[in-house]
Design a protein that fits this description.
292 residues; alpha/beta; 6-stranded mixed beta sheet; 39% helix; 10 helices; single chain; disordered C terminus
Length: 292
């Protein structure tokens, strides 16, 4: 587990930098404009971590940098337009949260630096060519979530003795959720768990799926990384209402009442991303491998 946890903190850096951003923040006549794009319902722990770490690095909010947040409340279809609008507003850096917003940002611009966290599989999603040579205008903090999914299900089984039927609800239009389903399917077979896959294509269908859960039919729920149709939120409600054990992908959901999570600390990921923003502004291009 410690080895896997270390993998979560791999950091990599892009080679392509924009001339506009090579000067330091102190040399600019106006604040660096950071556009944060997320499919959540508001500023995420990672966005807060980004802001806090930039301030600790000496950047003054509203003087040296400003962060504008666009969130689509679980609506993945709205992400491409939101990304285009941020680009049209003349932002200097795009900061993205989760796989779908990062993919939307990649489509929206090949010029503006994109710093992400929480993409899970940046190579498989076509965001970078490789960790050693990412190429393009994209860099970030990867959590290697697909590698963690197998361990997440294993830990879930260890926590709940006798668990044999696990629900995995997901949006089939979200590429990363499809990749997760494949990993969970293979892991469940190895662990002798019946994975009950439920694809949902609308908010109404997602709600109906959780309303129809019966505790004697489902022993637990594993929640996908995608926020589409508020699946994580509905899982929290189901756990509270029906006392069904639920495994999440991040600690924020445990703070809200979830049973457990196995994954990176998103606030710390945002703080790590701030170091990349700092390097971009200073024109430096390191490759970093944090030890924590």
């Amino acid at each position: 587990m410690r080895k896997i946890a270390r993998w979560c903190s791999i950091l990599f850096m892009l080679v392509l930098l924009q001339p506009l951003l090579i000067c330091g923040a102190a040399e600019r006549n106006k604040p660096v404009r950071i556009g944060a794009l997320t499919d959540s319902w508001g500023p995420t722990p990672g966005i807060v971590g980004l802001r806090d770490a930039l301030k600790e690095l000496g950047y003054r909010e509203d003087q040296d940098f400003v962060i504008g947040v666009r969130f689509t409340q679980g609506d993945i279809a709205a992400l491409p337009q939101a990304a285009r609008e941020l680009v049209e507003q003349g932002i200097d850096i795009l900061f993205t949260v989760n796989p779908a917003p990062t993919k939307a940002a990649q489509i929206a611009t090949s010029r503006i630096p994109i710093v992400f966290y929480g993409t899970g599989d940046p190579i498989g999603l076509g965001l970078i060519k490789s960790f050693a040579r990412p190429g393009g205008n994209i860099t970030g903090v990867t959590d290697l979530d697909l590698e963690l999914d197998s361990k997440r299900l294993e830990i879930f089984k260890e926590m709940i003795p006798g668990i044999t039927r696990v629900l995995f609800p997901y949006d089939p239009s979200e590429a990363f959720s499809l990749a997760q389903a494949k990993v969970y399917r293979e892991s469940a077979r190895r662990l002798k768990i019946m994975l009950i896959e439920k694809t949902v294509v609308s908010q109404k269908e997602a709600q109906a799926t959780f309303d129809g859960i019966r505790k004697n039919e489902v022993h637990g729920i594993v929640v996908p990384r995608s926020l589409s149709f508020n699946i994580p939120g509905l899982a929290l409600e189901a756990m509270s209402r029906q006392r069904i054990p639920t495994m999440f992908f991040g600690p924020w959901y445990v703070d809200q009442g979830g049973l457990a999570s196995y994954g990176p600390d998103f606030y710390q990921s945002g703080r790590q991303a701030a170091r990349l923003v700092d390097k971009i502004l200073k024109g430096q291009i390191p490759v970093r491998f944090p030890s924590k």
